Amino acid sequence: MALEVFHKDETLQMRRKLIGQSCRLFFSRDPVKIVRARGQYLYDENGMQYLDCISNVQHVGHCHPSLTQDAAAQMDLLNSNTRFLHDNIVLYADRLAATLPKKLCVFYFVNSGSEANDLALRLARQYTRHQDVIVLDHAYHGHLTSLIDISPYKFRKLEGQKEWVHVAPLPDTYHGIYREDHPDPGQAYADTVKSLIDEAHKKGRKISSFFAESLPSVGGQIIFPTGYCKRIAEYVREAGGVYVADEIQTGFGRVGSHFWAFQLQGEDFCPDIVTMGKPIGNGHPIACVATTEEIAAAFTASGVEYFNTFGGNPVSCAIGLAVLDVIEKEDLRGNAVRVGGHLKQLLLQLQTKHPLIGDVRGVGLFIGMELVKDRASRKPATEEAAHLVRRLKEERIVMSTDGPWDSVIKFKPPMCFSIEDAERVCTCIDQILRDVGDFISSVEHKRRFLTQTVAVCQSYNGGEWESRLKHTMKQKQKTLTLYLQSQLGVSMVHLRDRWR
Amino acid sequence: MALEVFHKDETLQMRRKLIGQSCRLFFSRDPVKIVRARGQYLYDENGMQYLDCISNVQHVGHCHPSLTQDAAAQMDLLNSNTRFLHDNIVLYADRLAATLPKKLCVFYFVNSGSEANDLALRLARQYTRHQDVIVLDHAYHGHLTSLIDISPYKFRKLEGQKEWVHVAPLPDTYHGIYREDHPDPGQAYADTVKSLIDEAHKKGRKISSFFAESLPSVGGQIIFPTGYCKRIAEYVREAGGVYVADEIQTGFGRVGSHFWAFQLQGEDFCPDIVTMGKPIGNGHPIACVATTEEIAAAFTASGVEYFNTFGGNPVSCAIGLAVLDVIEKEDLRGNAVRVGGHLKQLLLQLQTKHPLIGDVRGVGLFIGMELVKDRASRKPATEEAAHLVRRLKEERIVMSTDGPWDSVIKFKPPMCFSIEDAERVCTCIDQILRDVGDFISSVEHKRRFLTQTVAVCQSYNGGEWESRLKHTMKQKQKTLTLYLQSQLGVSMVHLRDRWR
Lengths: 500, 500
Fold this sequence. Notes:
transaminase activity (chains A, B), PyrdxlP-dep_Trfase (chains A, B), globular, Aminotrans_3_PPA_site (chains A, B), 3 domains, lyase (chains A, B), homodimer, Aspartate Aminotransferase, domain 1, alpha/beta, PyrdxlP-dep_Trfase_major (chains A, B)
């Protein structure tokens, strides 16, 4: 297998032509071409090594040899479908069952987290005979039609909110309506869900489910306050609904202390449905839904077959089993506790030096560092976060941002991330943040943004451009707009007059 | 990798406990445990060989060594996601583009046919800004919420028809409203779609798309009449909609003469969107949507990213490339023409001997043989078809049925199916059909069905049973109900009185 067939420029040119442009590249102005990887390290076409801080999918490390071996062995023996009996699927379901509370004992295998969440929605609706869904603000649950409907992060930019969707405030104790100084934020945020249920009932609507990531990722690496999930589960069940824990980003030991992030909420909380994805196959397309006997029975009682062509095939299950083996054998949960703990400590130390770091939060190898303009207002430092990510790339560290304002630096590295990796990243962040003041105030910086704005505006010809520009600014250049408006006092009207 | 971990009974017991019962097994009363496979042959836990006539997913043959080799090589090098530049995705898109009309030149990679059809729906709606969809009766387009809505085969058993879905008659010239004696069934059936569009417009509704498999499979291995697609494409485009060709079952050379089944409709017909799945990765979870620059541009213009975690990863694309290589190197399209042609001839010969065979239709290795009670009425011989499938299993041939009445024996074998395999199957069918008369009239047969009915009824206790029985009969025991009603004159009221 050749490392590279085309020169990077040619790859980029073919990609722009052949692949839908909605599929975006990291570092779109100067994307990275990665040709091989091992563990937590990526290598570009020139053999340059990058430290990978974000590939949570490659959970046990890129290209783990025991996974390749088990996958190839099973590919050589048999790949079929679930209409034939096979041991792998039952072995694998049995292993997953051992990680979960007893009541979550029935499994459905699918090909992606999106397929898992869609099936969870079908299960919840079939079981409860209700339609409506409560979700958290800024949530993202997948790319399918049904999931965009329950993802405020997406539907706000597209068709808008459906009448059967109810959006609860994100229980973010740093930015939200109840903060770290509230005596019981778990209860307070749970009450917002209770109010939503009551309002829905007044309109004659019926709740099928509460859907939430056990640690909201796109929302900004949020850690739920104590007691939050348990109380919501009570409210939702009283309303005849079920609790769906989306563990697609957070499962398989990422939090270290527990196998599933929902377990951080205590042993007296158990969801009714759990969805799994991303790390489950270390990059191989597999995903899963776990649920109770009662919910599965209601789905069966519809009398309609559920057949997923590739879901649960012997190769996918062999890979799933191999991932579980590596997590255990290499004590990756222990590593997440040790390295994640150390990384968080280092970031907290940096926070004492750099006023830009407003908050450091997280658990295991799921950590967020939020940048703010100033600590009093907690105004998100979006542009500074983007600058930090760009600068880290120059230092050969791959990092990205998340959160409603893209102001949260998110750490979700392969679980073999080491103490040395953590120290290297923090040393780089320290250096970059030392110079960030200069960056922010530099004339050069303002000039560059103005030039980019000119380019954006000029690329739109004629009538539609105002809406297009607004749209672009909203979506692609949010950072730019924010910066221009706040720092330079340039309004959109001003821009329109200038470039028309 | 062990061939077997548990004894078959234990596997079955674990499966019933751990895997949702909506996931059904072939031959549910005595399922087959397959532990290895090669080419067109499956092997059970006792080493017994089965000839596989239905695994269209394992397109180039089970466990093709060159696929395993390429997959393992890429797994060892890199598996990442489409946010990094990589050659495999552009190489693969380029190769797929070469099989398609020039206008279908933009690609999106996903993990399953269902994900592909869901994305096609999103693309169509975003481009046309219309919502409504026209589908064919009995169609199945996938297991996702959005696709059950456009699959009469499923929604008739579940929530029913949405107001934005319009169902056109299946252009089945054997059973449908226009038959083989019609002077121009293509035009006549296309006109039914035109009428649907006109009706929808009268209600103020707007058509986003016409969705159809290029050869309806669940509908009963249907071959579209000449001119059908081209005229529908004209009508749908006049209405501001697009034509979506679902090639998930039919693509990649299955029809032999062409790479895509829609190409059977002539060079002057080109869909606006093509969805691919099942055979694309020989069992590896990969799927694809191809569309035009205009539709892709409209999707991009929404400003919203489309990110599919596993879709288009370097391993999936390496496997996709390897499948294309094998199709070419082993001339599998040529094989489909030769073997499929021979198989169809043999079945047509059997038709001259067995009045039960009402119709033989198909192209390449996509063939349907429809059984009927008698040729004049064309009444489907559902139970006889089930009997034939059961008997073929005893002869170690895996076959299944399709069509609205499960009366169509469907051939969709791996593309390496040989002349000898075709002859073996036809010899077996000939022998089984010779004895089928005895089977049908036997008292033993009637007794067995009555016993089964008793068991079904007794398994339901108390109040709900009538609706449950109706439901079960409709879904799981359609065959039984039909047989009891037609052959024994046993009505449901009769049964209720007897077993209450």
